[in-house]
């Protein structure tokens, strides 16, 4: 079924697991993500950034995901990842995305608060869930400029979540997009404090490259959505390389993209089990 992210993540928070959110760059990755979730009986969030939505065509991304979701025996959401444009978020909502991130984390606090609240108001009648971020996750996501990481202040997070009425909240606790240079250092005490003060499900960005133990610990402290992007891209690309290097004569995209699809599906199964969302659909 094709649904929003609110109900599935609230259930995850209540029951102590997380719903994995996977970034899909193309049809094969979307198929792999939904196939893995279907096999594992897991709710799943498929997400695209704006550059990826443009690469697909926004309407095409919705049409493909909705079609795959309607055939799937598990709840599937389509979420717009990291957008800082009110107009683009509204365009995605009208196109049929079921969930939206308005990322005003690079803006001054007051502007982030005001615009996030405006998005929540605007999409509430459509039944869509809004994710917001406060503080700054490190690393670089698609074409966005690499920001300086800054941890979230728990009191500010509480006020922000209450005043905006968001359905999902992404704190910055030391994670970064992409693979990590050196050991990642997460502030678990801060996460626990934020969970105590913020009542909506919490989102962990920058899932790629985190040791399994850290992800499990974060879920134990209230994370109910974990984002994975870079590891899926890497799995797709490695499988395509391997297939092409193994046979320089290969010209049929079904051959190498098909291998890529299998590799992404295997990775998604691993991440679903790590999040503990298998059998929770
Ligand atoms: P990674 O690329 O580190 O998995 O981060 C994904 C993410 O946070 C998408 O919003
Ligand atoms: Zn992110
Ligand atoms: Na990461």
Automatic annotation (TrEMBL):
The active site is at 81 (proton donor). The keyword rRNA processing does not apply. Binds 2 Zn(2+) ions per subunit. One is catalytic and the other provides a structural contribution. One of its GO terms (biological process) is carbohydrate metabolic process. Zn(2+) 1 binds at residues 82, 177, 205. Keywords: Metal-binding, Zinc. The keyword S-adenosyl-L-methionine does not apply. InterPro entries: Aldolase_TIM (IPR013785), Class_II_FBP_aldolase (IPR050246), FBA_II (IPR000771). Zn(2+) 2 binds at residues 103, 133. One of its GO terms (molecular function) is zinc ion binding. Its cofactor is Zn(2+). Dihydroxyacetone phosphate binds at residues 178, 206-208, 227-230. This is Class II fructose-bisphosphate aldolase. It comes from Anaerotruncus massiliensis.
């Amino acid at each position: 079924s094709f649904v929003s992210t609110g109900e599935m993540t609230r259930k995850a928070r209540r029951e102590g697991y997380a719903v994995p959110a996977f970034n899909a760059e193309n049809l094969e990755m979307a198929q792999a993500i939904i196939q893995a979730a279907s096999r594992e009986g897991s709710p799943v969030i498929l997400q695209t950034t704006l550059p990826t939505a443009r690469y697909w065509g926004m309407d095409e991304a919705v049409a493909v995901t909705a079609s795959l979701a309607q055939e799937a025996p598990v709840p599937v959401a389509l979420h717009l990842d990291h957008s800082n444009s009110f107009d683009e978020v509204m365009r995605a909502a009208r196109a049929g995305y079921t969930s939206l991130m308005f990322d005003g984390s690079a803006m001054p606090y007051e502007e982030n608060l005001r615009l996030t609240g405006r998005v929540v108001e605007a999409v509430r009648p459509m039944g869509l869930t809004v994710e917001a971020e406060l503080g700054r996750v490190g690393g670089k996501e698609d074409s966005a400029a690499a920001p300086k990481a800054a941890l979230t202040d728990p009191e500010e997070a509480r006020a922000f979540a209450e005043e905006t009425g968001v359905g999902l909240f992404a704190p910055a606790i030391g994670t970064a997009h992409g693979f990590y240079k050196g050991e990642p250092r997460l502030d678990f005490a801060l996460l626990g404090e934020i969970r105590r003060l913020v009542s909506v499900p919490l989102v962990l960005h920058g899932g790629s490259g985190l040791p399994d133990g850290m992800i499990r610990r974060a879920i134990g402290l209230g994370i109910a959505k974990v984002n994975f992007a870079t590891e899926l891209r890497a799995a797709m690309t490695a499988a395509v390389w391997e297939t092409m290097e193994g046979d320089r004569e290969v010209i049929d995209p079904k051959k190498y993209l098909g291998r890529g699809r299998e590799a992404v599906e295997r990775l998604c199964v691993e991440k679903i089990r790590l999040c503990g969302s298998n059998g929770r659909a």
